[in-house]
């Protein structure tokens, strides 16, 4: 009798923005990509709020933030995904915070799926059988 292990979709974590659904790849390559997007986002958004001194600079900061978010969302979820999300939730501050939440949530879910708890459970079972 063969042990069958279904590995399809195990490295995809679903992400929902209201009624919009996407997924994030957490394979080795996917995690590396996610980390690079977080670094890109941090680098490109660093100091944007410091540039805001009046309505004109505020609007420029919003456009800059929107551009950064479009690149990272489209890179993470696929081309056109930012437009779908922004059309439904047109708030760059909200979507900026959501990007951070997505990254934290994906990492937390990945840890749950592959973390220490599973290994501890397996090792405990092995120890009980050995006794």
Can you describe this structure?
This protein has five helices and two strands; from the N terminus they run ββααααα. It is mainly α and 131 residues long. It has one domain (23-115). Helix 1 (28-45) runs antiparallel to helix 2 and helix 2 packs parallel to helix 4 (92-114).
Structural class assignment: mainly alpha
Q: Which strand order does the major sheet show?
A: 1-2
What is the makeup of the main sheet?
2 strands, antiparallel
Can you tell me the number of structural domains?
A: 1
H/E series: EEHHHHH
Principal-axes geometry comes out as elongated
Low-confidence spans:
none
Percentage beta strand: 5-15%
**Cα-based radius of gyration, to the nearest Å:** 20 Å
SS elements, strand count? 2
Q: State the share of residues found in helices, binned by percent.
A: 55-70%
Per DSSP, the total helix count is 5
End-to-end Cα distance: 27 Å
Q: Output mean pLDDT.
A: 86
Could you list some keywords that capture this structure?
about 130 residues; two-stranded antiparallel ribbon; about 65% helix; 2 strands; mainly alpha; elongated
Structure in a nutshell:
This protein is mainly α and 131 residues long. The protein has helices at 28-45, 55-77, 81-88, 92-114, 116-130; strands at 12-17, 20-25.
Structural topology:
Blueprint: E1 12-17, E2 20-25, H1 28-45, H2 55-77, H3 81-88, H4 92-114, H5 116-130
Antiparallel strand pairs: 1-2
Helix pairs in contact: 1-2, 2-4, 4-5
